[in-house]
């Protein structure tokens, strides 16, 4: 079994627009602070002056590689309260993976239903319910660029709904977001084109699904014939959960 890490890190000094800050406390510093709490001297510890290391994180639930819950897209879905991340069934998050290659597409281009169908023809694959469909853009390679959030193509409303209609519950992308870059959508919104504003996300108000954003290394996977596990961190009532998706490939 070969395991491929499909995630990007949460880190300080990220160019990502989602808030993320990590405060690191080393072994000596924590020894001093905990010694005061315990009513001892740091040198009284089994290894004098040394305790454990820890970190304190302040971040959005949408920072780093994460999976969006239906409630992220709107308060209701299919006429019912939308699921929060702690309500998403875990069996949605484990299944056969399919990679559709759109690495040739430019920033801001919308991937259509016909594009999806053509990509499936190229790999001679027919989707089945509970497949996990991964949209490859290769933009994860630009993670260190300050304009990382502006470089990816995105999914549209019709293409997202089409995947859901094929029985796909979870889908993902190695771009910054599921839709095209936000400033490009805002520009269209200012022109009165409301349908162009988060069409992929808002499709989740009508049909229930989850998507993963900021994945990585989809270029290292075969088109199909592997398993994906992408279990979210259990955050009560949250609109997303950080995850470390992996591909499991049999040798």
The main sheet comes to:
9 strands, mixed
Return the CATH topology of the largest domain: Glucose Oxidase, domain 1
Q: How much helix is in the residues?
A: 10-25%
SSE string, helices as H and strands as E: EEHEEEEEEHEEHEHHEEEE
Low-confidence runs: none
In angstroms, what separates the terminal alpha carbons? 6 Å
**Overall pLDDT score:** 96
Sequence of strands across the biggest β-sheet = 1-15-13-7-9-11-12-4-14
CATH superfamily of the largest domain: Putative cyclase
Give the percentage of residues in beta strands. 15-25%
Instruction: Please give the radius of gyration in angstroms.
Output: 21 Å
Please indicate the count of domains: 2
Task: Give structural attributes.
2 domains; two-stranded antiparallel sheet; 15 strands; 18% helix; alpha/beta; 251 residues; 5 helices; Glucose Oxidase, domain 1
Describe it.
- The N and C termini lie close together (6 Å).
- 36% of the residues are buried.
- With 251 residues, the chain is α/β, with parallel strands linked by helices.
- It has a nine-stranded mixed beta sheet with strand order 1-15-13-7-9-11-12-4-14, covered by helices on one side. The protein has a two-stranded antiparallel ribbon with strand order 2-3. The protein has a two-stranded antiparallel sheet with strand order 5-6.
- The protein has helices spanning 27-38, 113-123, 157-165, 182-190, 199-202; strands at 2-5, 20-25, 54-59, 66-68, 76-77, 80-81, 94-101, 110-111, 132-136, 154-155, 170-173, 210-213, 224-229, 240-242, 246-249.
- 18% of the residues lie in helices and 24% in strands.
